[in-house]
Amino acid sequence: xxxxxxxxxxxxxxxxxxxxxxxxxxxxxxxxxxxxxxxxxxxxxxxxxxxxxxxxxxxxxxxxxxxxxxxxxxxxxxxxxxxxxxxxxxxxxxxxxxxxxxxxxxxxxxxxxxxxxxxxxx
Length: 122
Prior knowledge:
Helices cover 46% and strands 0% of the residues. The protein is an all-alpha fold. The chain folds into two domains: 45 residues, no CATH class; 57 residues, no CATH class. The longest helix has 20 residues.
């Protein structure tokens, strides 16, 4: 029974958020001499059902630094994937994180299916 409960908690995003935010909330409420739920209305989860929903979610996250007035453009938004994508398009040798680039597969030239990687990791 204990293992089932642990597995259930580990797969529950709300449980994780409560665990992460509890100490912050207690301290902030103490400093502000306030009571109640500190993070009320700041966290909710919505299931992403399709590609357009994923794109909308990515755009929302990428635009957060601009909405928070931390940057004026995506290129100026430090420590974001939007900035890194922009930089890698301008200078392909600058970043090794090609995982952010579009994936192209030539079905005639590239082998499809399961095969070991050249790096030996998979």
